[in-house]
Amino acid sequence: RDPNHLSVPYHYYEPSGPDECTMYISHERGRKGSHHRFITEKRVFENWARTFNIHFFHPDWKPE
User: Cross-referenced InterPro entries, in alphabetical order (predicted)?
Assistant: First the structure.
C-alpha cells in the first residue's frame, strides 16, 4: 500500500468506516465465511486477457 494513497471509504454511506484497501485486503486474506477476493479476481482476468487475447471495453482497462 502506498503511504501517499488517499484513503477512500469502502461504503459511501459509512464515511468513517473501513477504507477500500483495508476491506480488499481483509477479503483477500479471509479464511472463514464468504469473501470476494477482488485482487485475485483482477489477476485472473488480467491473465485471461493476455492469454486468450480478450479485450474489456467497459470500464476502460488495459492489462499491465
Answer: GT29-like_sf (IPR038578)
